[in-house]
Amino acid sequence: MGDKKKVDLTTFKDAVLDKYPKKVGKKRAKAIINNDPDNMPVIQANIRTIPGIITQRGCTYAGCKGVVLGPTRDIVNITHGPIGCGFYSWLTRRNQTKTESDQDANFIPYCFSTDMQDSNIVFGGEEKLKQAIREARELFNPKAIAIFSTCPVGLIGDDVHRVARQMKEEFNNEVNIFGFSCEGYRGVSQSAGHHIANNQLYKNLIGNDDNVTPKSKFRVNLLGEYNIGGDAFEIERIFEKCGVELVSTFSGNSTVSSFEQAHTADLTLVMCHRSINYVAEMLETSFGIPWFKVSFIGAQASAKAMRKVAAYFNDPELTERIEKVIAEELKIVEAARQVALPKTNGKTAMLFVGGSRAHHYQDLFEELGVTTLSAGYEFGHRDDYEGRRVIPTIQIDADSRNIEEITVTKDEARFKERMTPDVLKKMEDALGKDEVEYNDYNGLMAQIGKGALVIDDLSHYEMEKLIELYHPDIFCAGIKEKYAVQKMGIPLKQLHNYDSGGPYAGFQGAMNFYNDIAMMVSTSIFKEIKAPWEREEVVEASYVY
Amino acid sequence: MGDKKKVDLTTFKDAVLDKYPKKVGKKRAKAIINNDPDNMPVIQANIRTIPGIITQRGCTYAGCKGVVLGPTRDIVNITHGPIGCGFYSWLTRRNQTKTESDQDANFIPYCFSTDMQDSNIVFGGEEKLKQAIREARELFNPKAIAIFSTCPVGLIGDDVHRVARQMKEEFNNEVNIFGFSCEGYRGVSQSAGHHIANNQLYKNLIGNDDNVTPKSKFRVNLLGEYNIGGDAFEIERIFEKCGVELVSTFSGNSTVSSFEQAHTADLTLVMCHRSINYVAEMLETSFGIPWFKVSFIGAQASAKAMRKVAAYFNDPELTERIEKVIAEELKIVEAARQVALPKTNGKTAMLFVGGSRAHHYQDLFEELGVTTLSAGYEFGHRDDYEGRRVIPTIQIDADSRNIEEITVTKDEARFKERMTPDVLKKMEDALGKDEVEYNDYNGLMAQIGKGALVIDDLSHYEMEKLIELYHPDIFCAGIKEKYAVQKMGIPLKQLHNYDSGGPYAGFQGAMNFYNDIAMMVSTSIFKEIKAPWEREEVVEASYVY
Amino acid sequence: MLLRHTTPKEIDRQALTINPAKTCQPIGAMYAALGLHGCLPHSHGSQGCCSYHRSALTRHFKEPVMAATSSFSEGSSVFGGSANLVQAIDTIFTVYNPDIIAAHTTCLSETIGDDMTQIVSKAHEDGVVPEGKHVIYCNTPSYVGTHVTGYANQVTAFVKFFSKATPKKRNVVNLVAGWMEPADMREIKRMANVLEARTIMFPDMSDVLDAPLDGKHHMYPKGGTTIPDMVATGDSKFSIGLGKYTTEDACILLDNKCKVKFEVVDIPIGLKATDRFITSLSRHANVPVPDAITDERGRLIDFIADNHGHFYGKRVALWGDPDTLIPLCEFLVSMDMRPVYIVTGTPGKPFDERMAAILKDIPEVKFMSGERADMFRMHQWIKQEGVDLLIGNTYGKYIARDENTPFVRLGFPIADRAGHNFNPKTGYVGATNLAIDILNALLDHRDRTCAEEKFEFQL
Amino acid sequence: MLLRHTTPKEIDRQALTINPAKTCQPIGAMYAALGLHGCLPHSHGSQGCCSYHRSALTRHFKEPVMAATSSFSEGSSVFGGSANLVQAIDTIFTVYNPDIIAAHTTCLSETIGDDMTQIVSKAHEDGVVPEGKHVIYCNTPSYVGTHVTGYANQVTAFVKFFSKATPKKRNVVNLVAGWMEPADMREIKRMANVLEARTIMFPDMSDVLDAPLDGKHHMYPKGGTTIPDMVATGDSKFSIGLGKYTTEDACILLDNKCKVKFEVVDIPIGLKATDRFITSLSRHANVPVPDAITDERGRLIDFIADNHGHFYGKRVALWGDPDTLIPLCEFLVSMDMRPVYIVTGTPGKPFDERMAAILKDIPEVKFMSGERADMFRMHQWIKQEGVDLLIGNTYGKYIARDENTPFVRLGFPIADRAGHNFNPKTGYVGATNLAIDILNALLDHRDRTCAEEKFEFQL
């Protein structure tokens, strides 16, 4: 315990690049960085994966339908395409949801698809899609129907947006219907899908309902929280306990109605910067709602996030209440941490997942005394690594250029300036200038230690090498990596779906994580991998000859 | 279907007796009878089983603790002996019971034993028994505690009756405590245990409570019904529907209190003649309650039983109600029978079980068009075969002489003459003289067909021969026989415990039985016993050479 | 209610599939490719396909599933995926060094019309396929057929690329394995061994997707049909295809190409299908059936007879693949159970015909295959009249909980339990396992839901 | 509540056993005797014993259990049972023609002091034992020890009556099988076969109590240790006893009588116990451990690793026999589960010592053996603080339902389920089966009891 391993990570790049074809190695070299927070290097991110390399990444459809729209419960999400895409995104992301009553709509356990056949490819699938929408309405009578395009849809020229408009008309505007051009081949990863999803949320849902009865003076949106394993439930609990109204969550445990009212909140908090920062920006531009990057992953991070809320609203009663909640919760959390610490302290971890989690979870690991040796995103951009300050310097390549950008302007009628210089000043006074991160995000590299390896779009080969060379005590990635890593005797924590654990957000979540990591790093069975007859030191049994 | 098999059973006896040692064969010869109802033969019954012969029979303890007292729910039944006897009689008889509330006592799921060790055998077990009773009282606070003697108890001289008296005294008579000298070696089968149980029920429970509030004018006891598979529940349903109060059942779904009030009923109905006729007689002698043999096994038998009740009470309203119930129930039963009949009609059965069931179930089989080729009891007496008229002629041998006989006299204070000649006359007028069976029982041989084989205490060897020679469509016996018979491709219905089926009593029960027998005789898997490569007529597969 | 919007009222759907009982071709091709030793499957399409298939297979097997992708971009979709595939082949052989790359197409590459033959030729010309290494391929457009079709196409590709007839036939029987679990394949090989039949099984996922944890990740686990064996299938005396939908095409091609006669039997699930398989193998391998096998059969019969009362008459709803459902329903019928509702998303007449024959004595039966023969429809039937048991993949758990109905997991994917790749469901032993699972499900339910006074020590 | 009278309040019981975790000696002797080929067990006592034992064994195995009884009457109890036994021997050999009669005593015949040696001599003198037939016997007073003791005594009698040393030792290892299922014995023999070790197992209930249904009732099924094999155990090089309580006596006698050295290991339940068994067998049979076995081990490890999160920290209550409970608890600990309450009615120090060692890192553990170490007590402990899982025989189902706790059936008797005599729990394969059963029980419970919003597709 407590014996922090000293690991020299500098040799990795050379060790690994040699193996690749020359051109491939050259490309990968730019994505493998020895971090130096004081002199932040440039990392290559959000560029095409080299064919054949065995990537963790998925596609645009997955980012749009799977990640962003998946957690919404009262939209009938129809996949327009052959059956596979709809099938694979059916219940596979652990998006939990809880309706207020048994009568409320919940379509999450359903998979809807136009199940395109060859004739639809040859003759076009629009009519089938229309009929599918009619049938969906007859059977499910939803408030909203969303249509997701799969690869062949764009190629054969089906126009899902036109179909959406036509069907909306056919239903006399009684159902909100909209489409997503999220064909799998667009962009370079799920990231493009998030962006496409964000745009359509903005165009079709956000701002639709001004008719709101506030439940609290303190009204916020939470963006980039998808309620994996119940994370959103825990965050909702904290907000409720603090007396802050959560107007909308994008999109964990969300409803159409909450999206439609998001513009009435006074503050936006952004969890997963990568998947949703577009919406945060649009909300500010149109309606004047300021946004802050926060994280509820980690007990201290959660406390910090709530303090940001307190500082922003700058209401003594609220501040007192939030501080009381923090004190109360942290006391319990600390006790749980002390139970886990003897098992976890001094251990090492590697995190390769998603567009934010590989960063956020470093906080939780720090609370456990676990050093993150190496980390990287599956679909992050440079700003997620280096901070938003690099955005102006990011070169837009062909793959990104194809993703729809929408122009957002101030909504003159509904815009309300909230982030006055005075508000900002008070926040900076309360929290310290560095902590405010107004409209900003400092990125992963600012946190991960000097010398740590930062690798974008890790390949399977690189992953094996990392483990072989540095054998971390725990590896964090996704389902595709899990069992390969565990075959090597290293426990893998899925940070996409938490295996079947969670919630890990907030205070309760931190305790769950402490327990689960303590459990994983003390898994007895990994000590038994070698059979007695494969070990050198076979202990002689005593028997009576 | 409907092709009744013609089976010649006359050769069996010769075929089977040859195999035995001469003396054994000679003994068995008297227990194997070709029936002739018109000229009823004498059968040897209730005599010792020949050592080594592989019998179906159990012991006196099993008859006393297992059969008669087992179904009572609010007596703590302590087995005094080594652990085995208590263990084997723990929940193994499917005696169902239903308390009125969750708070009422139900000790059926518990096994209580003094768990005698060698020191108790050497130095005596009375002190341990006393302590066990103290502990049972402290933990369970029962109304009554019963003590059952196992083989060594009698041999080492432990006096369970004295212990019972002493402990009752120690508890200031707040708990009714009594013992049973039901050591396994007494008698020749379970039958001795029934008798011993009956005596103690009479001595220690029956008549203890005169303080009764009648719920109906028509108050009856039901004897010899043990609520296997819920039979008693169904009979209770019928009585309730007819407006007849069931004062006590001996002993299915019974309570101490119901035993204590049994003497206040006006009529006793006897199901299992063998196990309980002693109590019926004692109730009549002491209290003047007449008894009739009835059976609720079979829809017609059930109707007949209820008509006997109607005829006895001779109340027009009651009679009308009973006839209405019968009509109503039989209508549904008949529909179910017609569903089963095509599968069952013309089939053959053999029944070897218990002391009454091998008789009663012939009614049900008749309703299904199934012929009983052969039947016999495991622990019946001659009167169960030949009718009570033979009782005076039964020779009492040494084994029976050792079973306690108690002398019962008229209870002058509480005796009430009910069976006046007038009552009897009216019954005979209503039902026909043969049907009344007042204080009588005509036995199995009167019902089973001419030429049918009647075999007492069937041995395993005889059973295999029966099947080999006559391959019945269904065989009825107990768990010990079940799988040997089924290995021969013949389905076996357990008539001790109904496998896990039932109830089979009453009208609902008849339907259950129809279904289950239809199921068993149409079991597809028995047609697949031979593998294709073991069959002569292997059908050539067509394939493309 | 989890599926609270499902009502008994069916409408005449023409377009919308809800809760499918199928998925798309490429995953079948990927799964089958893992049954070749030293083979890396390759998905020629956008990244998502490969990621989805690997994830789905991994969730089911809880095993590493290695596969590569052509990582199509918008550009490749316009200009064709040739460059991507050639580069992928280069990268794969350089970095991951498989013996074989088994490429399959996707709806994307099919829609743009990539010519696999031409692209792979180009890869050879470009020198990115090392000496002695193989690139095989098959066409698996997602909008034709289902995952079952993709499996069949991949297996057929094995024959196309490897099987070779030399002048000398060998007394060997090919066992062409349909879609089943590694444990099922292992069990079929074990039976063949007990029969002392000489066989070659392909594909063979045993020792691939049920690999030991030994401290290393083996990109190419020790299992899988080897190339020499695959080549030798052309010299075998006979092929037995296990499952018409998944293996008939391969059998026919092997006959056409190498004159290996064949018979297609059902996957040996249950008593009678195993009887037919053993009979066929015994005949074509020219070996008698040993007592050990007859005993296994007898133990199955014993088990069913012993517990028959619990099975008899129970109404069952099933969903899955035709090659599984056909022998499975036959097995249930042989236990006197009543399969009443059966759906498969995989289209094809043989399913309908076989079901009609097997279920001829169950007048209330409803079955359907192809488009919109989905779990939503089956659930609507259940809402109309309930069943006693559900058998199918993990998606059934939502119905099981809503309807409080016992549920036996069988098929693909099973994402919420483990062990299905350990205990076979094929052969007599597998049928016994299946019967045990069914019995446990029924009795657990009985024990859980019965009234207290009906709670029993013995069942 | 089914067991509504059970409260958390324990009292200091001195005399009353409630819901025992044991039964009496003779049934163990009867069970063991069925593991000799051609043997008919014989119960020397009143009819009830034999009937009860046959019934209990039959309910558990759902198989015919043939045995005879001396059918004591009150007279025999007074004058001794000699005449009954001699007549029984005559009847049995005449009618049922076994090769061996294995008689055991009961509390009755023990209390009256029947001298078995003398009675069997008399039977021989009376000429009722045919040439070449055997009558063996053992003393199994019900008031000493438990069913486990009776099993051990019967197995020791096998050695006493049959084992014979000739001058020539053979390179064979005796496997003395403790109380386990036929499937467990079959699995251990299979492993020995894979190791290519030459072994003789005794007793051996496989192919006896898991016999096929073939249309005949075989009084003496084809399984069981044969007399020649049993005789030859005296010439074996070494004995491995599987389970101290059940086999050590036999091993010692075989050493004393025939100079066959021995080692007693645990019944190979779970990873480490199987490791020790395989190591011992490999060493004493002088054979290396083949990869096939190492792979089975690796698959077990893989399964546990894959599902570790579901096992970790789960509190388990267990009851049963020491030879089973010892390796079973060790196995649970190796999966990071927490066996917290353990009772066995069988007395003996080794249990207490081994438990203390295995469970040293579980401070909250309570275990107890011998008199009044019963299921009532264990249930009281559970009432004090609940558990996540129950493992034991069918009697646990009442606790499982009352406490809404997952339950894995293991041990004797299992009267409400079937299949336990099919799937082994020994060896790596058996350990995997056990882990699968545990996982299913835990996950079924989770799926059943979780809130709807926590109901998961993947677990």
Would you kindly provide a written description of the structure presented here, covering whatever features stand out?
The complex is a heterotetramer, with two copies of chain A (545 residues) and two copies of chain C (459 residues). Chain A is of the alpha/beta class. Chain A is built from 22 helices and 14 strands. In chain A, the strands form three sheets. Chain A has a six-stranded mixed beta sheet with strand order 1-12-11-10-13-14, with helices on both faces. In chain A, strands 3-2-4-5 form a four-stranded parallel beta sheet, sandwiched between helices. Chain A has a four-stranded parallel beta sheet with strand order 7-6-8-9, with helices on both faces. In chain A, helix 6 packs across helix 8. With 459 residues, chain C is α/β, with parallel strands linked by helices. Chain C has three domains: 133 residues, Nitrogenase molybdenum iron protein domain (Rossmann fold), CATH 3.40.50; 121 residues, Rossmann fold, CATH 3.40.50; 159 residues, Rossmann fold (3-Layer(aba) Sandwich), CATH 3.40.50. Helices cover 45% and strands 15% of the residues of chain C. Chain C has 18 helices and 14 strands. In chain C, helix 1 packs across helix 2 and helix 14 packs parallel to helix 15. Chain C starts with 16 loop residues before the first strand and ends in a 10-residue tail after the last helix. Chains in contact: A-C, A-D, B-C, B-D, C-D. Chains A and C meet through helix 3, helix 4, strand 3, helix 5 and helix 6 of A and strand 1, helix 1, helix 2, strand 3 and helix 3 of C.
Largest interface: A-C, 93 and 85 residues
Residues in helices of chain C, as a percent range? 40-55%
Instruction: Give me the CATH fold name of the domain at 60-186 in chain A.
Output: Rossmann fold
Q: Identify the overall geometry of chain C.
A: globular
Mean pLDDT of chain A: 95
How do the strands line up in the largest sheet of chain A?
1-12-11-10-13-14
State mean pLDDT of chain C (0 to 100 scale). 97
| Name of the CATH first level of the domain at 60-186 in chain A | Alpha Beta
Pfam families (chains C, D): Oxidored_nitro
Family (chains C, D): Belongs to the NifD/NifK/NifE/NifN family.
Protein name (chains C, D): Nitrogenase molybdenum-iron protein beta chain
GO molecular function (chains C, D): nitrogenase activity
